[in-house]
Amino acid sequence: MSQTKILLDESDIPTHWYNVVADMPNPPTPPLGPDGKPVQPDALTAIFPETLIQQEVSGERWIRIPEPVREVYRLWRPTPLYRAHRLEAALGTPAKIFYKYEGVSPAGSHKPNTAVVQAYYNREAGIRRLTTETGAGQWGSSLALAGRMFGLDVRVFMVKVSYEQKPYRRSMMQAWGAEVLASPTNVTEAGRKVLASDPTSSGSLGIAISEAVEEAASRKDTNYALGSVLNHVLLHQTVIGLEAKKQMEKVGVYPDVVIASCGGGSNFGGIAFPFFADKAAGKKVRLVAVEPTSCPTLTKGVYAYDFGDVAGYTPLMKMYTLGHDFIPPGIHAGGLRYHGDSPLVSQLYHEKLIEAVAVPQLATFEAGVQFARTEGIIPAPESAHSIRVAIDEALAAKEANEPRVILFNLSGHGHFDMSAYDKYFAGQLEDYDYPEEAIAESMKKLPKVAG
Ligand SMILES: *Cc1c(COP(=O)(O)O)cnc(C)c1O
Questions:
Q1: Is the CB of 138 under 6 A from ligand 1?
Q2: Ligand 1 near 267 CB (within 6 A)
């Protein structure tokens, strides 16, 4: 089997998304309102369109992808699946390593897979504007692109430290016509409150979410779009795993292990959930989520109800959390710095149906560089987390002399992260200790709810 790129036709773009809820052993835990009672779906209509709310609570196994969305997907989907022949040779491993490459989207990551869906349903619902937050800029640029595709205005609250450090991602959003503000801003109550207590605040994802939600909730023509965490976002991302299954089938292999980096969980859910369907049906396959040791939500967090944002505007979600006002160290994988995790991923982890590993920053960059020097593609620092674990799996297979089949999601390229690579080459990147005290402090502020 010497094939390197396993490709599908445009006609192979999935016609339906896969909803993991249908195959979970227990129903998902409901989000709770301020009164501790389950949030009624219509309470979310101030910020989300009906269709997305229905998907959020759906138990249907398959949900049809609208044709206009499949039309836009054609711009970059199906994405290629690669066999990592050169990395395998460099490692001297008997393992077969495959990676699905989501960096071919216009924004350079998997995030447009859901951004275009959210823009489409909002336009169908008569919405004119979308607000959102972005950390490193990957989600903001994906939504900027999606807004452009479906004729919606987009306002992005960008975490101030990234706004200043990542001017090119800001320019990308502007190139697609979005408006970008450095958060905390003084245009929202949430932003003004933070600035009043800390005028030099460099911002956080949690603060930016509060700002974007506040604005969407207060304007009729405006809705909010979230890039990860929620059930409907993970649903949309399952096009990744569905295609990957078809591609592996094409060359007659099935993975022993599926690996993906995990921030809010959509990248992991996107590739892993379609394989979970097989696992639920009795097939043996390991599903591994990878996170940074500096923001170890699954491996060191608690499974509890917590807010999705700093101000506490969002419903309470049962998830692994480090506390909603935990601000993790400034590692270069900005997409992996969220304090919580998808409730679906959290529940599956709690029930021991999936695994999680945390890896430190330096070993991650070492893996990223080894990958660039063998496979050619320079990975995003987030994606390098899954490469680290894929390499470790391949080395373990070598040790055990086992022909394991490894699949990981290469969620994005690193072309806008070269300043992080610069620091790595200059020996200026560091491993952060597990931020035990900051997490303990933040945990004290977990909302008190039964369950
Ligand atoms: C955002 C991002 C991630 C993490 O995404 P989640 O879906 O929230 O887990 C991983 N890789 C890349 C390239 C990203 O941009």
A1: yes
A2: yes
